[in-house]
Amino acid sequence: MITVRFTYITGIKRGLFRNAKLSGTWNSWGDIPMQEIVGDDGCPAFELTLNFDDTMASQEVRWGVRLDGPPGANQWGIVTEDPDLAVIRPECHTILPPAGGQVAARYYLTLSRFLGAQKFYQGGAELLKFAVWAPNAQNVEVVFGSQDNGYIYDDGTGIDANRPVVPLKKVGGGDIWASDPLTDFQSHVGLPYMYRIQNAQGVRRMRTDIHSRWQIGRGDVNPKYNAWDGSPDTLDGGVSCSVVIDQDGVREEFEPTTNPPKQITDDEFWSKEFTAGLPVPTRLTELVIYELHIGSLGFGKTGPGNLQDAMDFIPHLVSLGVNAVELLPVSEFHGNVGWGYGDTHHFVIESSAGGRDKYKHFVRECHRNGIAVIQDVVYNHFDDKAERAESQYDSELPEENIYYWYEGRSTDYANPNNGYLQNGSSDRTPRLWEENVRKLFTSSAAEFAEEFHVDGFRVDLTQAIHFNHYHEIDGPWSQVNSARIFGQKLLREWSRTLNLIRPAAIRIAEDHSEWPKVTQPTDMEGMGFNAAWFATFYHDLIGDADNQQDKARVLHRAGFGTDDPIPLSQLSGSLAKTGDAKIAYHESHDEAGNSDGTRRTILVAVNGAYLAGPTRDAAEARARVVAGISVLSAGTPMFLMGEEIGAWEAFIHNEILPNREDILGERHSLGANLFRYYQDLIKLRRTSPGLRSRNIDIIHAADDNRVIAFTRTDGAAHELVVVSLNTRPFDTGYIIPSSADRLSPGQWREVFNSDSRFYGGSDLGNFGAALPSQDGRIEVRLPANALLVLSKM
Question: If we measure between CA atoms, which residue out of 783, 711, 773 comes closest to residue 744?
């Protein structure tokens, strides 16, 4: 008989799953109960040993696991798709051994407790085990560095000679190298280490642990190229030693007052996560999202902001009224000043920002204040300076560069680099056909959801994953279909993983392709996102980017201060689509000075004129209008930090510190009126059922008059939003012509006016009067450059 031991390994410490059942091709996918065990990683797992007839020797069997979990009973537990390009079915494959043989068939839902420096449980003891994916390596060892230094040079300088080198050996088919368990895990906590890899060419290289949980460097110096003072405070975390940490504990205090800091268990830490009566929102229709870059905080400091500054900023978010914060990437990236879109270590919270424990404190404090945390993550490229991380990890041959997609052999090209794929992002396409590369991303997301308790994700430039792949030598017109397909596999696997462990996790795609499958469920061959960024709406509404000449560009045109027509009828098209699972924004990090031609909203409103006197008044008035259109649209509203006080400095990825604006100071001075407006606008959105709904009807758009009106409804709740970007008021009244079936008859009362004196306006409006609508027509007094909201009485 042939014996196969099937094991389903969760890699997740919590007991999320139960009642696991094995099924496969040998019994027409019938269910066989599995035994629940605790794996040697300390996490729940399920196993079952089956015997097969010797006549099945060398045959392939396909199998999977069903289990009960967070999304419900009898859920399919395999998220990884078939490697065949034409198949999207998520199943496991095992080749049976020769007659009388034995084989282990394992499936890892996540690699979170497998690769890296991990606890290994044996006989009740906590041991340490290292494991790394290095399929081309000839030899792999772990060497330790010094805690007061944290860097090991390529020639071995910096290795702690007092600690023995740890040899690794190939396991599980040859791609994974693992150590024997080392005694006493806790005695190793805090030790810096690196992998010393003898690569395919026989050359020894120092490499970081891609599955590291902490990088010791907290600065921006790479000692290979620049003078370095020998301190981890100035060392770049992307090239520094990785550090052994205990994932199951957290510092009790944000800023410890004891030495050593008091540690508590994760369970104890998260037991005080929420405030009674102040729930954290979980549905997109409930959210008003604030896009926040931690490094742009730290007002008055010389260096970038950190998690302490983010903690200090939470009262501002509460006062503003937003209930979700979207953080620009926080995973380890090159240097310590940047947006974070070039990640090197997807399990590490940027050390210069404060690291994993402080990040947990920040998430918990947001939750205590009823604020959801949406984390921006990057899977379309790695850091272009990942020389000790992803780049040439275990071989110098481009075709063996295990984290990057390469077509053909390097000998096929005059320049070997020409075989790499690009995808329109900041660097080369990841090697998405490798399951371990895709698992790196899906396992990182699982860790954010499980160990850091984030409420959702925004995935950077997803069209660069599912669509835009081309040969570096040929240019964007040379699309590579196989890369597209494996990019789609990644996104489906990622969505399935989150749906299995945290079904309520919000999944947002930065996707400008408007491909319907992005927001379709994975069982419909979709990518499984809940919503996508809506760039077309932004360009129609604001229109400052140089490459968007075909869009309505409403604010840009209004900023000239003339009475020329504005194509509000064109804006109507994208405004009407905001209810189709869209994130509607009037400013984002990409369009606030970083992209060609773009500026902050308040500057677009006057085409860059000096913000003083009447010009400032006009700029704020128009800025209030576009913010109102966006926040009161049928999409989920989002805006970039600083919009609420009229930030005007360009938000550029490499000019963060010189362009940083004191948001906390400005809200009490020049930005006070705008801040008050945002407070009331957000409150209106969050408290009105009609304005929270996905229902929208553009009932009027007059390009010549520069007026647009739309209704927002939910059952008996009816709201009418009327906008004028005219330079002069309609102070004797403006008739909104529609039809009775689109504007119901009755009395309407003005409940919000962006021209209020409380916001710095002229205070022209309808002053709470009951305005009748009849035959689909209503007459309102309209201020110049203003937005009104009328509620059906």
Answer: 773
Considering only CA atoms, which of 614, 622, 615, 611 is closest in space to residue 543?
A: 622
Q: Does residue 159 contact residue 187 with C-beta atoms inside 8 Å?
A: no
Give, in degrees to the nearest 5, the angle at Cα 116 between 114 and 118.
65
CA distances from 202 to 196, 198, 584 (A): 12, 5, 53
CA–CA distance, 230 with 149 (Å, rounded to integer): 6
Q: Which H or E element spans position 589? A: none
In the numeric block, which tokens belong to residue 114?
């497998």
State how far the Cα of 713 lies from the Cα of 723, in Å rounded to an integer. 17
Angle at 156 (CA atoms; ends 155, 162), nearest 5 degrees:
160
Amino acid making up residue 338? G
CA distance 430 to 407: 12
DSSP letters along 398-414, please? GGG-TTB-B-S-GGGSS
pLDDT at residue 108 tops 70: yes
Nearest to 456, CA basis, from 363, 332, 320, 379: 363
Residue 179's DSSP bridge partners are: 168
Count of C-beta atoms within a 10 Å radius of residue 679: 16
CA distances from 584 to 271, 424, 599, 602 (A): 35, 23, 18, 18
65: which 2 tokens?
A: 């696991």
Closest by CA to 143, choosing from 187, 207, 190, 203, is 207
CA distance 302 to 569: 47
Rounded alpha-carbon distances, angstroms, from residue 536 to 547, 554, 666: 12, 12, 31
**CB distance 504 to 282 below 8 Å:** yes
How do residues 291-350 score in pLDDT, each as one tens digit? 999 999 999 999 999 999 999 999 999 999 999 999 999 999 988 899 999 889 999 999
Which tokens go with 667?
A: 């809200």
Check whether 31 has a pLDDT greater than 90.
Answer: yes
- Three-class secondary structure assignment of 250-318: EECCCCCCCCCCCEEEHHHHHCCCCECCECCCCCHHHCCEEEECHHHCCCCCCCCCCHHHHHHHHHHHH
Picking from 206, 204, 208, 198, the residue whose alpha carbon sits closest to that of residue 241 is 208
| Residue 145 to residue 621: CA distance in whole angstroms | 58
Q: Return d(Cα 295, Cα 113) in angstroms, integer.
A: 30
E-state strands within 98-186: 102-108, 116-122, 125-133, 139-144, 166-171, 176-179
The pTM for the full model equals 0.97
> What's the length of the chain?
793
Q: What is the mean pLDDT of residues 270-277?
A: 96
Structure tokens at 222: 């790479």
Q: How confident is the model at residue 477 (pLDDT cuts 50, 70, 90)?
A: low
Q: Are 117 and 124 in contact (CB under 8 A)?
A: no
